């Protein structure tokens, strides 16, 4: 690839986009206008909410105005004119926002009061309901008959120290409409006023009866928050900023990508570029860098204007006592901001490549824009997951694309660098892998004639299904390989959910046998086998079963499994040291191991743990999937993607990492030997050794003088000592290198790529 | 300069299954000649020329362009050719000068030689007036001139024109044909596809008549007329097509 051409294409595309008013508006103008406008609207809305007064209709208020109560010092006034008493609602603004309308003072002659009057024959409930429904008032408070007297009785009971149960409990039932937000808010404020009023009456009654107020509140409850104010203030932004960053990075990538691919197809300039000496990869990279720059610029501009607007709005609100609790927002630290900006590189690369690939598929700009929604639908759950309560950065979440990155950014904004540190590698690994896959997909789309010169075709399901069988290729195609991975994962997800519910109650041998059989035969083997039968014309070739392997390759596979075993065990324990398995999972695994490995039917266990997965997983992964992915034209790409998929289908997070690394080795074995048998042999030996070593360790512990004890006994067995690991590593590397010389079968695409890589000299002298 | 041997291209079509767009096309085009490819719409002309320009890959056969293989050495092939078709448009948001300069740089021409070459081209093709005009503001004729300049900016030994006069008015089409003739006189090897017989008669030294992806006849125009005893090229064309149709129907 010539970077000079990439730079040329990048500069041209940049100039082209900067001359496009629509793109400029979306990238630069919209963010500058959007947030200030939103902020302005929010401020105005808050002002409106503050000035929005609620009316409370008080019925039968004269209950509180009897001569005994009118000047009673123990009964603080509830009402004062058209408002509640200032003792109960401090602050004029607050008080003014809750207006009181007395039912008895309504004037039947006043047109404004007429709708509030009770209609003849109307019950109090019907009256209140009508007023609330019509929105004339937001709550109705009716004092029941005898309420005033009741209060007096309660006081006398307290002062005279009469036994409990001498008076009936009084009740006030404000009426409101929960379906109306304004009414609901009025009810909450009214309830607050009534509680305070009740508290004051109680305090007076107790004081006058010489009972300390502590009699009703033996202790106070005051939670102590140790979080620094800045950290609390930054928590809000830590959830919002990564989300805004990602959503705008996607939007900012999409529109330029559609214009640069589907738009160029539509305008007829893509073919002009394809006939230039620039390679397809150079074209993709030139366009990708443009899309990345626009994506990053959009995200940054949005982030900056959102930050500034939020800061301004919250500082204005903080100045208002009514919204003091919202406080002012603290901006994240400079290092967190730098990390946010830095994270834009992989985010924009990922979205840029995804958008380019989708846009390359579209025939027109209009069609391209249809693809935004599916892309959003796929990425949205990954963006929203970190915002769910309880979702934290751990090994599991760090391996989820986008989610892990968002959680890592959130930890950085909150200043929790040390807690986030162990997850930097998995997050970066997964993000880089996704970026590379997305870029590779975009390159594939640009290299595909059926994509670049796609013509509209009527969709007919019947014909399509018929053509799948009629026009099937000898081996699986690339999309079929990818589809097989997706199918295995989906089926496995549903089956594992069903089994997880039962495994909590049951861990018997028969349950483990049944669940393993279903998972292997139903979830792994069945999709691959069915796809092989129905979608390929040469099933044996597709599964690398069309010829017997060389004997030496079978030997290499067997010995390699023995040599790799201690390395694999050490790798697993190293992974568990960095990312410990949760105690619950550890308990389940131990129980599983004891039931299975301790079973007297050791041969059945061997079949279940070693032979069955080796056959099923190898047919699916190194058979069907690897055959399909090799149409990419690069064997290492195919091996790596297969290995990642192989790792991903393992149930325990820590297992996924070690399985993926073993997948690389088995994938290489499959390509170099051209046969599935050495892979199956290696896989079966590797798994079988786990059972064998477990039983041998048990024997060793029981026989301290045996050779097994020398090898596997004690806390730190000799088999896993560094010197043994080093020797095994060297021997395994030599064996793997010996496979390099094998002349393996290349796919058409691999041959073409190798021919293209060979050189630029003319074939024929001219 | 161009040797095509048994070139084939088949697509998988939902309705028809495997559809053969090009079926074993073999020909040779030499320096200083215009090699015409005649055929009705759907004859496989565009497919053949897209294969020669490496935009498409053949499913069978091979083609060598100025010594380079179209499948294994596509970048080198593209450096040897200038390709122009009805599908190769100009950029709307680039001026004529910027567009030709962009392609010149993609062909690896250094700044000074490129500037000199462009000045010469803009002068010869009378493009100075539209030098700073955006593609979106150009007329069809202006766009065609920019396309020619873009295709020959690197002075390629081979030029491929795929129905380059399609949709042009008489004046622009004539100017286009004059430009092709001038390039032929400069010693370029030109492959020119068309379905307009008059253009072929006027311009082509040798022609290949294609229908349904197959080569029906090939050779010097006079030799073809003599061989088929038909002085009128259009009639000759129809006769060959009908013969082929009769074979297919049978």
UniProtKB/TrEMBL annotation, chain A:
A GO BP entry: CAAX-box protein maturation
Entries under Pfam families matching the protein: ABC2_membrane_2 (PF12679), Rce1-like (PF02517)
Domain of life of the source: Bacteria
Sorted UniProt keywords: Membrane, Transmembrane, Transmembrane helix
CC per GO annotation: plasma membrane
CAAX prenyl protease 2/Lysostaphin resistance protein A-like domain location: 602-688
GO molecular function, one term: ABC-type transporter activity
Transmembrane parts of this sequence: 240-262, 283-304, 336-358, 370-389, 395-413, 420-442, 478-499, 511-534, 554-575, 595-615, 635-653, 665-685, 719-739
Record bears the keyword Transmembrane: yes
UniProt-listed InterPro entries: Rce1/LyrA-like_dom
Keyword Mitochondrion annotated: no
NCBIfam families per the UniProt record, alphabetical: ABC_perm_CPBP
Protein name per the record: ABC-2 family transporter protein
Organism the protein comes from: Adhaeretor mobilis
UniProtKB/TrEMBL annotation, chain B:
Metal-binding is among the record's keywords: no
InterPro entries, per the entry: AAA+_ATPase (IPR003593), ABC_transporter-like_ATP-bd (IPR003439), ABC_transporter_ATP-binding (IPR050763), P-loop_NTPase (IPR027417)
Keyword annotations: ATP-binding, Nodulation, Nucleotide-binding, Transport
PROSITE patterns: ABC_TRANSPORTER_2 (PS50893)
Any one GO molecular function term: ATP binding
Gene3D superfamilies assigned to the protein according to its UniProt record, in alphabetical order: P-loop containing nucleotide triphosphate hydrolases (3.40.50.300)
Ranges where the ABC transporter domain occurs: 2-237
Pfam family, one: ABC_tran
Family per record: Belongs to the ABC transporter superfamily.
Protein name: Putative ABC transporter ATP-binding protein YbhF
Organism: Adhaeretor mobilis
């Amino acid at each position: 690839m010539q970077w000079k051409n990439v730079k040329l294409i990048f500069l041209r595309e940049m100039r082209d986009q900067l001359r496009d008013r629509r793109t400029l508006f979306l990238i630069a103008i919209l963010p500058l206008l959007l947030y200030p406008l939103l902020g302005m609207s929010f401020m105005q809305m808050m002002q409106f909410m503050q000035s929005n007064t609620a009316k409370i209709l008080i019925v039968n208020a004269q209950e509180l105005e009897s001569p005994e109560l009118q000047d009673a010092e123990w009964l603080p006034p509830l009402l004062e004119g058209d408002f509640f008493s200032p003792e109960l609602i401090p602050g004029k603004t607050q008080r003014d926002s809750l207006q009181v309308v007395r039912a008895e003072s309504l004037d039947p002659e006043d047109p404004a009061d007429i709708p509030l009057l009770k209609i003849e024959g109307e019950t109090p409930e019907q009256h209140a309901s009508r007023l609330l429904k019509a929105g004339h008032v937001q709550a109705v408070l009716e004092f029941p008959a005898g309420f005033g007297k009741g209060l007096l009785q309660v006081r006398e009971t307290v002062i005279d120290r009469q036994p409990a149960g001498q008076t009936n409990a009084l009740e006030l039932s404000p009426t409101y409409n929960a379906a109306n937000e304004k009414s609901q808010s009025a009810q909450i404020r009214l309830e607050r006023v009534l509680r305070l009023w009740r508290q004051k009456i109680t305090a007076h009654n107790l004081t006058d009866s010489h009972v300390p107020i502590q009699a009703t509140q033996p202790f106070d409850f005051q939670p102590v928050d140790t979080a620094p104010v800045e950290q609390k203030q930054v928590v809000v932004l830590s959830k919002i900023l990564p989300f805004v960053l990602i959503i705008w990075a996607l939007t900012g990538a999409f529109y330029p990508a559609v214009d640069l691919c589907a738009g160029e197809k539509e305008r007829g300039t893509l073919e002009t570029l394809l006939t230039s000496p620039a390679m397809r990869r150079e074209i993709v990279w030139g366009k990708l860098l443009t899309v990345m720059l626009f994506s990053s610029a959009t995200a940054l501009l949005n982030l900056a204007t959102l930050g500034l607007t939020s800061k301004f709005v919250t500082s204005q609100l903080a100045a208002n006592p009514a919204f003091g609790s919202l406080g002012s927002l603290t901006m994240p630290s400079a290092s967190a901001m730098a990390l946010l900006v830095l994270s834009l590189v992989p985010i924009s690369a990922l979205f840029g490549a995804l958008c380019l690939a989708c846009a390359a598929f579209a025939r027109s700009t209009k069609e391209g824009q249809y693809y935004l929604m599916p892309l959003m639908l796929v990425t949205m759950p990954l963006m929203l997951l970190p915002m769910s309560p309880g979702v934290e950065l751990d090994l599991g979440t760090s391996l989820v694309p986008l989610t892990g990155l968002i959680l890592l950014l959130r930890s950085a904004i909150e200043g929790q660098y040390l807690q986030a540190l162990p997850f930097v590698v998995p997050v970066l690994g997964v993000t880089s892998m996704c970026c590379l896959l997305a870029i590779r997909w975009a390159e594939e789309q640009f290299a595909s004639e059926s994509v670049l010169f796609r013509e509209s075709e009527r969709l007919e399901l019947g014909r399509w299904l018929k053509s799948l069988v009629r026009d099937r290729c000898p081996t699986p195609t690339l999309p079929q390989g990818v589809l097989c991975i997706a199918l295995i994962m989906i089926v496995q997800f549903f089956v594992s959910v069903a089994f997880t519910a039962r495994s909590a109650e049951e861990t018997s041998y028969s349950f483990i046998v049944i669940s393993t059989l279903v998972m292997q035969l139903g979830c792994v083997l069945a999709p691959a086998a069915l796809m092989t039968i129905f979608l390929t014309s040469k099933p044996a070739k597709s599964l690398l079963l069309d010829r017997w392997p060389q004997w030496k390759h079978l030997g290499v596979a067997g010995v390699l499994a023995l040599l790799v075993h201690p390395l694999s065990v050490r790798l697993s324990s190293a992974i568990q040291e960095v990312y410990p398995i949760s105690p619950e999972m550890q308990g389940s695994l131990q129980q599983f191991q004891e039931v299975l490995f301790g079973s007297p039917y050791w041969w059945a266990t061997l079949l279940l743990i070693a032979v069955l997965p080796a056959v099923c997983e190898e047919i699916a992964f190194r058979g069907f999937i690897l055959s399909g992915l090799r149409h990419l034209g690069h064997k290492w790409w195919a091996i790596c993607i297969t290995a990642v998929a192989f790792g991903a289908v393992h149930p325990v997070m820590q297992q996924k990492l070690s399985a993926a690394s073993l997948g690389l080795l088995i994938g290489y074995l499959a390509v170099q030997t051209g046969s599935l048998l050495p892979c199956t042999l290696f896989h079966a030996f590797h798994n079988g050794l786990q059972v064998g070593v477990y039983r041998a360790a048990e024997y060793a512990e029981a026989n301290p003088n045996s050779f097994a004890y020398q090898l596997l006994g004690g806390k730190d067995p000799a088999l896993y000592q560094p010197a043994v690991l080093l020797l095994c590593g060297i021997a395994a590397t030599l064996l793997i290198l010996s496979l390099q010389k094998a002349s393996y079968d290349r796919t058409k695409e691999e041959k073409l790529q190798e021919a293209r890589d060979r050189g630029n000299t003319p074939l024929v002298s001219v | 300069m161009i040797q095509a041997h048994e070139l084939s291209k088949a697509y998988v079509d939902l309705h028809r299954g495997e559809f053969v767009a090009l079926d074993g096309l073999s020909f040779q085009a030499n320096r200083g000649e215009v090699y015409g490819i005649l055929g009705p719409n759907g004859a496989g002309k565009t497919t053949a020329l897209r294969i020669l320009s490496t935009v498409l890959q053949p499913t069978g056969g091979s083609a060598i362009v100025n010594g380079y293989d179209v499948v294994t050495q596509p970048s080198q092939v593209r450096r040897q050719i200038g390709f122009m078709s009805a599908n190769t448009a100009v950029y709307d948001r680039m001026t004529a000068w910027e567009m030709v300069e962009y392609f010149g740089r993609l062909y690896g021409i250094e700044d000074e030689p490129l500037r000199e070459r462009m000045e010469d081209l803009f002068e010869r093709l009378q493009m100075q007036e539209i030098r700073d005009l955006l593609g979106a503001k150009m007329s069809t004729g202006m766009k065609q001139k920019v396309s020619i300049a873009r295709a020959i900016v690197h002075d390629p030994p081979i030029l491929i024109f795929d129905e380059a006069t399609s949709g042009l008015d008489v004046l622009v089409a004539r100017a286009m044909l004059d430009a092709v003739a001038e390039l032929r006189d400069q010693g370029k090897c030109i492959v020119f596809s068309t379905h307009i017989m008059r253009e072929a008669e006027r311009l082509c030294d040798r022609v290949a008549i294609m229908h349904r992806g197959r080569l029906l006849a090939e050779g010097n125009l006079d030799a073809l007329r003599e061989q088929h005893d038909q002085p009128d090229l259009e009639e000759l064309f129809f006769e060959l097509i009908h013969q082929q149709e009769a074979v297919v129907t049978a």
